[in-house]
Amino acid sequence: MATGSRSARWSAPWPWWLLGAAVLALGAGPALVEALDVPAWQRNVDLEVYRAAGVSLLNGRPLYSFLTDVPNLLPFTYPPFAALVALPLALVPFGAAQVLWAALQVSLVVVICAVSARPLLVRCRHAAPVVLAALASAACWMLPVSDGLFFGQVGILLTACCLLDNAVRGRWPRGLLVGLAAALKLTPGLFLIHFWLAGRWRAALVALASAAGATLGAAVVLPQESVEYWGRALFDTERIGSTAGTYNGSIVGLSSRLGPDTAAGSLLWGALAVAVAVAVYGLWVAARAARAGQHVAAVAVVGVLTVLLSPVAWLHHLVWVVPGMLALVGDARSRVRVAAAVAVWALFSTPLDLPWRGARMLYDPDVPQAWARLLQSSYTVGAVLLVVALHLLVVRPARRGRGSLHGGPADGAPVAADVERARAGA
């Protein structure tokens, strides 16, 4: 990925940065207010779980049997390493933790957009900060991000870690951040398989070593909690929630909502067959994307798969659609790709609220049940269609370009016209 070349970078005078900050405040600010302007018992309930885990370690109370206060009564469901990472949250009042976590989340959304939209930002030159602010604001009005802000979830952090590890040339060993993300929450472990299939064996080994090191280190510090998690809590599905609920965006969740209880057995086998097909296809697309230099698209595909293939995966876990949407945009020269990206934003936008709209329609006798069920599971279907769109509109053209242009432009690399304009000082 050509992130190191001078022409692939973008910069702007400070007035543009000030204007960008104003646009971000006006665009993302209302989304943040809408997500957090709720009764105190509803606000950042997942952040409360993380903080409670840190408090449990400090106070010596049981990590996996403690529940948060009434009425939420939520357990800690993450590995012991995540509890160690949550310790700083336990050192500050919950109100302060909420402010800091919200600021971190919005900052990480900006980082995700900056990395994912690099081709467009390079093309925009001085106006890049304003465009970046507009993109980040739009992302904050997508339900996975908005609900992540509302719940105080960790999904935005995991997406940023995996994106930076795959799509940015950092000073850390490639794979380190993915491994730490997998130690925090198991689902990013799918990136280890992606590294291997994409021929990035060193990154796969680094990710495996960092995940194992963090997990074993936590086991040394918290031996009893580690035995409890890996021996019992991990397999206790009742700690997570119902698979048939609207908020479950996985393939298993979609199948659980489709038919009567008498069809549960056949639906389960059908869901497994679909999941296997989606996994094989998605991992193949992601590997081809990585080999073509389209690392943002690869991250989006693998990230979406972590949601689709999990037995239970909440809709706010679909933060991966943000880099997927921006990978579709590219440098915005293709109208078809831009239109597809706009469709992705509309589908996952907070104002439309399609899954819950479909769930409410189930009680309307004038609405066909099939239509209501489709809307209820629209994020699951949309996630699969996003993988297909990235394959057809991003990966295939990039691979053809690499074949005809001796490697072709990777995501983050400017096209030839941009290089010529940069050299001419345009």
Automatic annotation (TrEMBL):
Principal localisation: membrane
Family indicated by similarity: Belongs to the glycosyltransferase 87 family.
InterPro entries: GT87
Statement: the UniProt record of this protein carries the keyword Iron: no
Transmembrane stretches, start-end: 81-114, 150-168, 175-197, 267-287, 293-315, 374-395
Species the sequence originates in: Motilibacter deserti
Membrane-related topology note: Multi-pass membrane protein
Keywords: Cell membrane, Membrane, Transferase, Transmembrane, Transmembrane helix
Lineage: superkingdom: Bacteria
Subcellular location: Cell membrane
Record's protein name: DUF2029 domain-containing protein
